[in-house]
Amino acid sequence: MPVKQKDCDPLPNIPGKDATAAELAQAMHDLITWALKQRLGELIAAGMTGDDLKRFHRIAKRYETGTNKVSDWGWLQNHMPELEAVNIRYTRNT
Question: Which domain of life is it from (predicted)?
């Protein structure tokens, strides 16, 4: 019997390779906001460790203050499988 998925916001759009810096910054902000709204247990169940969640929080703070790094975007791209496992309804711009 299939498990009913709870209602939640879809993952925000992820820009393609030709995105501008402003589009990437907005996508990062939207992604962090979305993920922080999700239940902590869902992120842990999807495979994020305590260290991952701490890093995710630090990245969120850097984006709020405008002191983000290029490596922040790379880290989030590497952790997309965990984020996608939390909610599979999303669209990706290509």
Answer: Bacteria
Residues 63 and 21: beta-carbon distance below 8 Å: no
In a domain, 46, yes or no: yes
- Count of the separate structural domains present in the chain: 1
Average pLDDT, stretch 12-27?
81
User: Which residue range forms the structural domain that includes residue 80?
Assistant: 28-92
In a domain, 75, yes or no: yes
Q: Domain for residue 20, yes or no? A: no
- For the cut 50, the answer to whether the pLDDT of residue 89 exceeds it is no
